[in-house]
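Bench notes, afternoon.
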Amino acid sequence: MFCIIKLLRGTNNMKTFIKNLLAAVSVLAIAAISLSGCSRESGNKVVIKGSTTVLPITQKTSEAFRKNNKVSITIEGSGSGNGIKALIEGTCDIANSSREMKPEEIKSAADKGRRVKEIAVAIDLIVPVVNPANGVKEITMAQLKAIYDGSITNWKQLGGKDENIVVISRDTSSGTYEIWNEKVMKKTDVKKDALLQASNGAIISAVAGNPRAIGYVGYGYIDSSVKPLNVDKVEGTIENGKSGKYPISRKLYMYVDENRVSADTQKYIDYVLGAEGQRLVKEAGFIPVN
């Protein structure tokens, strides 16, 4: 910039000014090309945003992938809807999602020139969880709906203690919420006083800290701090998910814009879908697709 100012300073006539101005523009153009070139050379970066359910898969596979590949992978768990929005806006390379894209999202992507590709990377179960102190072990799909729409309000109605049920749900930007709303709620609204959480981890923490609470999480998030409930007498296991016996399951996706998939992004996706990546999917507590 100092050189440009120097070029323009002290011009006494229009001809000299124009000549110096053109020279200044040339300097700027060369600088822009140079900066762009630097960006490409150091641009081995993959940005991933979206579903917190897919987050454990992304964390495990990206860590292993980076051991043999010089690439930076940035991961953000902000919900499926936010990940898809970021892909449409061009602020991420991969959108993790625990649901399929909606028709309006596909249209919005097309309007912006995005050529979206859907890639199934795993199969997941959504499991209702309660505090380990809760004596209830079994629940039906009808009872789950009644709890979440407010028809059932006390654990005594389910064979438990005479205590009010604290209902905990994911927020509406969540793909897990979308599947719960479709498969359990049959498109009816969750009760208005339900406590909404932004992630699977937040639901686990809330249920672990409240003996009267019930929530639902992706299978890969279940740990000893909560107790999973059997649904319609079927335990939420990988085997029951594979066989189709467990009633609340879904595919997990990675979405990309085919018009701007980098070599590093494609290489990472190929790794996730390969034998090593799918082994890590299983390690993370999910069902491999391959």
